[in-house]
Amino acid sequence: MIEAISFQHILNIVNDDLKKASMRITFYDSVDPVSRNAMAEINKKVKRHNFIGVIFCNPNTIFCKNEILLNLNYFHHRSGKHINFFCCGYGNFWPEGLYQDQQVVASIDGMAWYYSDQAFVYVLNEFEKTTTWRYSGENELLLLDVSPPIDDKLNINSAIVCNLEIMNRDKAFTSVRSFFEDIIRYSATNENANGWQFSDRKGGEAAKNYLKEAILSLLPKTLQDTYKKAENYAVRQI
Questions:
Q1: Digit-coded pLDDT (tens) for 156-178
Q2: What is the pLDDT of residues 78-132, one digit of tens each?
Q3: What is the predicted pLDDT for the residue at 118?
Q4: What does pLDDT average to over the chain?
Q5: CA gap 165, 26 in Å, rounded
Q6: How far apart are CA 138 and CA 58, in angstroms?
Q7: Residue 44 — pLDDT band, cuts 50, 70, 90?
Q8: Closest CA relative to residue 4, chosen from 127, 97, 110
Q9: Are strands 84-88 and 2-4 parallel, antiparallel or unpaired?
Q10: Pairing between strand 50-56 and 90-92?
Q11: Residue 83: φ, ψ to 5°
């Protein structure tokens, strides 16, 4: 779990992670110059990407309190290096008075985590300015497949929004905890990377749709067809 009080903060972390991302080709000092140059050319053509989650949840709602805040410490440790979840409007190590409305809402590793409506709305407005997503007012999770930023903008390959409250009412999952568990497990497997590489080679609609198809595959089969047909419903592409 990573604090998110500005769009630029998210952008910086995504960029740093992509720079550190291990390449598919490894350089060895022992290889000859010709082989090393060939490896360098292959590396240049490797399109790096990262899978991230951006959470917009209001701690003043019962849903957020029960489904997300109570599990924030667990999500933090369980997600590990597999996927970064950015909690918009939340943060730690805030000095007193950073935001007039800041309040302690959770604890991660024994450290207080704060929330501010002011910070939440600031990030929300920035996301709406830079993407086609529009906030519903309910608890939502954005899932983004991103490549290195271009001109200080998120370079989004594929993106979906999951309205967690609608999904809960539709019984798309037994709990947000179980849904996040499936997302984390998917992020940790080769299925994520292989699916992205395959869709990228296909290009066009296949590349844009692959993330939605992947997430829908985690849901009950009885809902998959319904969500596929309802583009403006609980799980939709943005």
A1: 778 889 999 999 999 999 999 99
A2: 998 888 999 999 999 999 889 999 999 999 999 999 999 999 999 999 999 988 8
A3: 96
A4: 81
A5: 44
A6: 8
A7: very low
A8: 127
A9: parallel
A10: unpaired
A11: -155, 140
Count of helices and strands (H, E) across the chain? 10, 9
Closest to 9 measured CA to CA, from 48, 52, 49: 52
CA dist 164 and 238 (Å) reads: 16
Q: Which residues contact 67 (CB under 8 A, 6 or more apart)?
A: 139, 164, 168, 175, 176, 177
Look at the pTM and tell me if it is higher than 0.90: no
At 114 the three-state DSSP class reads strand
Beta strands in the chain (DSSP E): 2-4, 50-56, 84-88, 90-92, 103-108, 111-115, 140-150, 153-163, 235-237
Q: How many whole angstroms separate alpha carbon 169 and alpha carbon 93?
A: 35
Q: What is the structure's pLDDT at 150?
A: 72
Q: Total domain count for the chain?
A: 1
- Other beta carbons within 10 angstroms of residue 237's beta carbon come to 15
**Pairing verdict, β 103-108 and 2-4:** unpaired
Amino acid at 131: T
Residues spanned by the domain of 181:
2-237
Q: Using an 8 Å Cβ cutoff, are 192 and 180 in contact?
A: no
Report DSSP state, residue 96. T
Q: Record the tokens describing residue 77, joined without a space.
A: 């440790």
Question: How many residues in the chain?
Answer: 238
- Strand 235-237 to 140-150 pairing: unpaired
